[in-house]
Amino acid sequence: MLTANEIRSRFLDFFRSKGHEIVPSAPIVVKNDPTLLFTNAGMNQFKDYFLGNGEPVSTRIADTQKCLRVSGKHNDLEEVGVDTYHHTMFEMLGNWSFGDYFKKEAIEWCWELLTEVFKIPEDILYVTIFQGDAAEGLEKDEEAYTYWKQFVAEDRILMGNKKDNFWEMGDMGPCGPCSEVHVDCRTPEERRQVSGATLVNADHPQVIEIWNNVFMQFNRLKDGSLEPLPAKHVDTGMGLERLVRVLQGKQSNYDTDLFTGTIAAISDFTAVKNNKRIIYKHSDSKQDVAFRVISDHIRAIAFTIADGQLPSNTGAGYVIRRILRRAVRYYYSYLNINEPLLHWLLPTLASQFEGVFPELKKQIDLVSRVVKEEEEAFLRTLHSGIKRFKAYTSTLVDFSSGSFLQDPQMDDEQMRNDRQNFSLETHQKRISGLVAFELNDTYGFPIDLTELMAREIGWSVDMEGFQVELQKQKVRSRAATALSTDDWVVLKETTPTNFVGYDSLEAEAS
Length: 510
Hints:
This protein is of the alpha+beta class. The chain is built from 17 helices and 15 strands. Strands 1, 2, 5, 6, 7, 8, 9, 10 and 11 form a nine-stranded mixed sheet that branches. Strands 3-4 form a two-stranded antiparallel ribbon. The radius of gyration is 27 Å and the shape is globular. Residues about 395-410 and about 420-425 have low confidence and may be disordered.
């Protein structure tokens, strides 16, 4: 069985043999593009080449790119850990043509690599092409359809709509029709009972997209219109995590050697800290979801910090803080760990990726210190916040009578506030905006963490009310900092200062 490192190397070697220059991954943190917080696709670093604003080192390039999809249009955060194939940070294997080859070669090489180099059986593969979109004035991609027919039976070439088969990085920028390859990982018996063609792009956990060939032909302008690019390009992307899963014959990305080392390290930590080892059982239990969330999130946290983005309260830094706190909440709630875990996993991760992304190994001390400090800070308030959440949702109200129950752990003012908010919210099983804001402002719970905890018990969150409270806080903050002063403020009347350094090395001063 090929290892993940061997699979990555074979991909790059294949495209090197096709005349491609192998280039390093761009940082996961985007500093020079106002349309993006993070690198969310392999093509981000080549955006200027597609627009005709720069010259690439070669018209043919291949790489493996660190990507992060937790904000904006491409946001997979809520699926991470719950399913078996979404991730926050992932590696995107890609090959690129800048005005060189186009659909013919891209399709031929895609099929050659998957079926001849990686030996994936042809009878479990499906391809999709763009069916066109009348509203955009776009026709069916007949060119891609014609080339695919040379390799694939027509009943395995499926039509895809704009959502699935017209690729766009964001609201603006280079874009074009795409052709995906999907793999059916179900058992032979399951495939005989139900055709995989009916499950493509249907969120089936075993029928998954493995490779996307994007044919860059247009630029999406700010007003939403499309203009042709100066030249036609190829932009492909294949998620390494999914490819490794297929080639290693696993039912989950987390069962591959990209994650098993980290999962084993988490299990080791539970044995050391709790005197009882918790074993990952490959199930849908909250405990196993926690293993998957932590092993995924630590990668996003570590590589983003190594690339220069520290956790903070705004922008990209806030996204990283959210991911970190989500991981902390999972190990605290479901693995019974109440001390920092994430920083303990970093040496395992750094060694695993040393040969492809050496920046983490080089900055391991800094990254470890930052992560540990963030964990300690959140753990200090997490216990109180969860207690507050549980009190609100389960111990304060008798749902059979609707009566308000006294909680001895809460002060009178807090009780009065909750009493006012419970009259309607409790019967709807809804977290009030005021309490959601309190969890955020007092206990450091990002609002998406409150939403996650609410969903787990069948509740919802009053997001409109939360935004009202958030706006009130912003107004209060602005008012508190609006100071009126004269041009010059005397803090203390003093005598003139004389320089005494010629004769003394010490002196008292204000």
